[in-house]
Design brief:
Structural class: mainly alpha
Strand content: under 5%
Number of helices: 3
Radius of gyration: 36 Å
Distance between the termini: 7 Å
Number of strands: 0
Order of helices and strands: HHH
Number of domains: 2
Largest sheet: none
Keywords: Coiled coil
Helix content: over 70%
């Protein structure tokens, strides 16, 4: 009974850990998404300010702003790099979450195997407990061996 209670406790603990892990992954994904949105907003604002600054400087120097396509190229390039990094981070977190879920499934399978093994051991013990006294009774020293068995069983803290 203690073993089964321990197994149930481990299962509940694993379930709780799985739920916590899922929540952590969801929270991290939400945090990264919010951070991505914030960075995109800031990047857009900075891009606009930079474009306004370049336009202002070009007007002061009496230059045509269309001759400065490199500014847009720089702005677009850095944005794409940041988006790529964020997408890679999201993918890494998804893979990590999948690995954690796989480990949890494997641990659940191990618990199921241990439970089956425990049940078989209990059946084997019951069979031995029944057959052993019978075999002792057929022995020449049956009385002495049976009293030893009774003493052993009396001192055992088995359930």
């Amino acid at each position: 009974d203690e073993y089964e209670e321990e197994i149930r406790h481990q299962q509940e603990t694993m379930k709780h850990v799985k739920e916590q892990l899922k929540q952590v992954h969801e929270d991290e994904l939400q945090r990264l998404t919010a951070e991505n949105d914030k960075l995109n907003s800031e990047l857009s604002k900075l891009s606009q300010k930079l474009q306004e600054l370049v336009t202002h400087i070009a007007k002061q120097q009496e230059k045509d702003t269309t001759s400065l396509p490199w500014v847009q190229h720089i702005l677009d390039g850095s944005h794409e790099k940041e988006m790529k990094n964020l997408k890679e981070e999201v993918e890494r977190l998804k893979n990590y979450c999948q690995d954690q879920q796989k480990q949890i499934r494997e641990q659940c399978e191990t618990v199921r195997i241990l439970e089956r093994t425990n049940k078989q051991l209990e059946l084997d013990n019951e069979t031995l407990a029944f057959k052993w006294p019978l075999s002792l009774l057929g022995d020449q020293n049956a009385g002495r061996k049976f009293s030893v068995l009774v003493k052993l069983l009396g001192s055992c803290s088995c359930g």
